[in-house]
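Aggregate trends can hide what the representation actually does to any particular protein. The sequence in question and its C-alpha cells are set out directly beneath this paragraph.
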Amino acid sequence: MKFRTTTALVSAFAALFAGHAAVADPVADFYKGKTFTILVGQEPGTGFDIYSRTLARHIGRYIPGNPQIVVQNMPGASGVNSFNWLYNIAPKDGTVMATSSQNVVMEPLMGNTSAKYDATKYIWIGNMEQSASVCGVTPEAGVTKFDEMLSKEVVFGATGPTGPLGQAARALNLLVGAKLKIIHGYKGSASVKLAMQNGEVKGICGLPWSTIKAFWKDELDAKRFLPIIQLSAKRMPELGPIAHIDDYVKSDEQRQMVELIFGQLVLGRVYATPPGVPAERIAALRKAFMATMADKEFLGDAEKTRIDIIPSTGEEVDALVKRFYATPPAIVEKVKETVGGGK
C-alpha cells in the first residue's frame, strides 16, 4: 500500500514538472537578470534620445524575463558610427537595439564608404513615429516665405554632410535652387538650436516636425522659430499654407528623387538589431515593441513628453527599406549627386 502511495506521489510530481517544462520560456530565461541596451546614434537631448528614453521606461514590462533597460548615446558621423558598431561589434544575442536618424538607413545606398553595414540585413524591431520634416528660420534670417530663399542667402546649421540636416538643405539648393549656406560640424539638432539662439546660424533644415513640437515648442510659440517649408511624402494639415517640396518639383525624375530623399522620413524613429539574433528573441522583441506602443501608461508618458506616436511594425520597416534599395540605379545616382556631400 505504501509502495502504491509513493508511486502515485512520484507520478504526480513527474506530471507537475512535466507541465512546467512544457510551459518553460527559453526567451524569458535568457533575458531574466540581463541588461538590454537601447543605443542612440545622436547626442543627449535630441528627439531620438528623448523617444528612446520614453520607450526605455516601459518596454521592459513586455520583454519576457523583464531585463533592465538602459539607454546609451553613441553620437558621431550623423549616426553612422552607432550603426557600424551595431552591425560589426554589438553582441548578436538580442541584448541591444539601436536607433538613429533616417540617413543611416540610406548611407550604403548613397555610396558612403564609411557605412560598413548592409541596411537590408538589419533586423528591424519597429518604428515609433512616421515622421515628416521641416526647414525653419529665426526672425533674424529676414525671410518669411520659402520663395524668398530662392534669391536671398540664409545661413543654416547642420551636422556632417551625410547627416539629414545637411542633406535636406543641400537637396533644396540643388533640386529647387534655394540659396542656403550650410555650416557643418554641429553635434546634433540641440547644438544647432543653441547656435540659432546665439545668432551663429539663422536656420535648420530636415528637422522632424515631432521634434519641433516637443522640444522647440517655446521657440515655435514665441515665433522665434518659423517653419518655412515641409519636406515629407504628404502635406501636414497642422502646417496649413506653408510651402511643400512638391510645389517646386518640375519633372517625374525630380519626383522620384524627392521620394528617395524625403520619403525615408516615414522611417521616423526606427529600431534595429544586428543580423544573427535568434529568431525567437526577435519575435519576442517585436511583440514587446508593438505592445508598448499600445500601452496606456506609455501613451500617457508620450503625451506628457509631447512626442507623437505613429508606430509601424518591424516587418513594415523591413519592407520599406527593401523598397528604397530597389530604386532604379539611375535615380540613385542622381540623388547621390544631389545629397552626396559638399557645401
User: Anything to note?
Assistant: The chain has two domains: 27-131+267-339, 133-264. Residues 133-264 form a domain with the D-Maltodextrin-Binding Protein; domain 2 fold (CATH 3.40.190.10). The longest strand covers residues 35-40.
